[in-house]
Structures are given as C-alpha cells and as structure tokens.
Write a structure and sequence with these properties.
This protein is of the alpha+beta class. Helix content is about 40%, strand content about 20%. The protein has 6 helices and 4 strands; from the N terminus they run H-H-H-H-E-E-H-E-E-H.
C-alpha cells in the first residue's frame, strides 16, 4: 500500500465513515475517532479498515450492526471486541484475527509470522525484514 493511501486512510474519521458500528463511541462523546486511536501498529491499518468495511456491509445487509467497543493487539493478533451483531459478525471478527497472524503489524507485508521476544515478553506478527531492522536495532 502506498504511503499516501495510508495517510488518507488514517485521517478518515471512523465515527463518520462507520456511524453504526462506532455508535458506542459517538454516544460517549468520543469523536472524532481515527484509526490511530487504537492500540495497533500501522501495518494493520489496512487490514482493520478492510474488516470494518465488512462489519458495516454486513450490518447494512441484515440491519443488525455489531458495535465496536475496542480494537487492539492481543497475543500477536488483531483483537476486535464488539457487542450486538450476529453469528456473521463473529465470523468476520475471527477472519480478521486469523488474517492478522499473516500480516506484518509494522509494514503490512503478507509474509509475516509470529515471533516472541524474550527481552520484552511480547508476541509480534512480523516479517523477516522488519524483524531484522527493528529487533536487532531495538527500535520497537
């Protein structure tokens, strides 16, 4: 993904783009909400946006919107917490979680694998290039 596309995507107010699935945030007065407000690295921004669109499409199709309550990295995977929705919403969340195990959370490379760092105890989903550049230089 081009840098300009990532910047445009990051600057989209998610509460305006997806008002039904971010209703929880709107009702609490936490607006605008941008993709960088969540606890994930930028390599997963495009992955997250892809699945937010799926949640939105599914809600429009069925009238049963899943409301996103939290988005974060957990155990090296993309964790999307929600309430409401239906079985299809749960399938979308699982699909996102599974795909996140193959996408580098730093650069979006689809050739990532899970790596546990003994120095800090975190599990990362990271490609070889980012591993060599970041872990060996300690710039995480």
């Amino acid at each position: 993904m081009k840098k300009e596309t990532k910047i445009r995507m990051v600057n989209i107010d998610l509460t305006q783009r997806f008002p039904e699935i971010f209703k929880h945030w709107i009702d609490r007065g936490i607006v605008p909400m941008y993709i960088y407000n969540f606890s994930i690295r930028q390599g997963w921004y495009s992955l997250l946006f892809k699945y937010l669109e799926k949640f939105d499409e599914q809600g429009k199709r069925t009238g049963n919107f899943a409301e996103i309550s939290d988005i974060k990295e957990k155990f090296g995977g993309l964790d999307i917490s929600f309430y409401g929705g239906d079985a299809e919403s749960f399938k979308i969340m699982l699909e996102a979680y599974k795909e996140s195990y193959t996408v580098c959370e730093f650069c979006s490379s689809p050739n990532a694998k899970q790596t546990s760092m003994k120095t800090d105890g975190w599990i990362y989903t990271i490609c070889d290039s980012c591993y060599n550049n970041k872990f060996h230089k300690r710039t995480l």
